[in-house]
Amino acid sequence: MNYKILAERLLPGEYPSTESYEEKYPPRALPKGAEVTRLAPSPTGFIHLGNLFVAIANERIAHQSGGVLYLRIEDTDLKRKVEGAVEAVKNALRYFDIKFDEGAEIGGDETYAPWYQRQRAEIYRTYVKKLIEEGRAYPCFCTEEELTALREEQTAKKEVTGYYGKYARCRDLTEEEIYQKLDEGKPFVIRLRSMGDPAVKHKFHDEIKGDITVPENDQDVVILKSDGIPTYHFAHAIDDHFMRTTLVIRGEEWLASLPIHIELFEALGFGRPRYGHNCSLMKQDGETRRKLSKRKDPELSLEFYRKEGYFARAVKVYMLTLLNSNFEEWYLKNPDAPLESFKFSANKMSKSGTLFDLDKLNDISKNELAKLSAEEMCAFLKAWADEYGTDAQKGYFADGEKMLKVLTLCMGIGGKKRRKDFTTASQAMEYIKYFFERPQSHEEYRCDGETRRALLSGFLTRYDPSDDAQGWFSKVKEVAAENGFAAEMKDYKAASEAYKGSVADVAEVLRIATTGRVNTPDLWTIQQILGEEETRARLKAAQ
RNA sequence: GGCCUUGUGGUCAAGCGGUUAAGACGGCGCCCUCUCACGGCGCAAUCCCGGGUUCGAUUCCCGGCAAGGUCACCA
Length: 543
Hints:
This protein has 543 residues and is mostly helical. It has helices at 3-10, 18-24, 49-64, 85-95, 121-133, 144-156, 175-183, 232-242, 258-268, 302-308, 312-323, 327-333, 358-369, 374-388, 391-395, 400-410, 425-431, 433-436, 449-462, 469-482, 489-494, 503-515, 523-530, 532-541, and strands at residues 36-39, 68-71, 102-103, 137-140, 189-192, 201-206, 210-215, 222-224, 247-251, 274-278, 281-285, 288-291, 354-355, 485-486, 501-502.
């Protein structure tokens, strides 16, 4: 069979030479050891924790080696395309401080553009044509129904499913058969003519998993779909070659198609990038655990974390602790060092799937937020409120001085006793609510109304906003003693039956009256911030 | 089902032939204390199973088992 003529019939016209592409996309001039990595999402607009997980690994590896991170959009499947998806991806990643050096809508060096696969059709076809000319690819006219029937037959016989060996019907079509079908106008795809034997295994070094064994591929995979657009596998080989990727860090779900990719690179005569297959983030689902899924776990979309008001750095720190087993220890020793100064290494990445642990994230979040200055905390909360907060919450920032006071005094910012009361911005805004709005409801008092009134009026007659913390507290003790409560905790513990309660109970009444809550930071400080008028008003209202 | 990967407390995990089997989160208890949060101290809890190799296996080998991934003209 004359493959040259066949290729011309299948993909008519002049195509650039393969040499011209090699010249157009030359190897990158980067220092030795610099890694070129990429993020290659499909534009579905949905980006989740798993994407961030891989993104952080790629970002660290590229930038700590003085290399390049680029963004490529895998839009070969138009069914999945969603409007505005690229913007959404970029925004989400920017929030988590993932910076691209080049790529789709990024700017930067355009040498290796275009970054959208649909705009690269000519390159792919050039190489498909070349493979046809070499007899390494052939047209396949099988219909969807025929392929389904084939799969069923194989399943019934308990044989490996797919298009391979004796099942690859169109692989050995005669010249006459091919041209006849072509003349009939039958649609076709182009398949790779595989030369592999899955019984033959090779050792392969994976940057994350270490040495693994990989069987040869024998599937005649589709490389060009009937719409003239390549499949992922083919586009991957072409793009990562011509974008000069050195290291592909991708999800574990790709490990199974590694044999295909290996054969494709070999057939095209390209050197391969190195690979690292990252374990997936898992989720507990009833009795079992499974990979985070876009369909089933919308709460794990990155947008969820922004809405809740998670602190971006905290999420990143958590991802890093999962990503590199020695990160946590390093971070404990260097809590204030920039994250970039951690030496990230692919071989320290976890080999098995890790369960996403919200408790751990929350703990990290508390600690990260506790590192902020009052101004930084304020800016963080304001940014969140502007986007997701209620009108009332936006209003909290009208009096900037008061907000800073609340944050500084009540959170213990700048002091030695730093409080860690909340994990997210939304939680924080709820937490400081009573400073800005008079409580609409009060948690339950644990004493009867008569006692409550007596305690409140006892305090009110003594209340003097110029008292310092100690003076204030001794007055609370006086009120306690006057009403049959123990002024000293020691006394109460020694003989609790002798008293109606302790100072703690007295303070609780005052606390509920002024804030509506049983648990708050230091009450004296709160009353100082509220001011005399507001404090009195709230205490009176509670009588 | 075939193929690939992975199996250390509830979770994330150190460990690489001899350890009281680190640490962190979570849980529980105590202390501090006007409550809470913080902080301090402590407790419970782990080497998937079975064979080898070895004086000795969590660690090495083999075999099971379990979990996950994947078997598209989706990526």
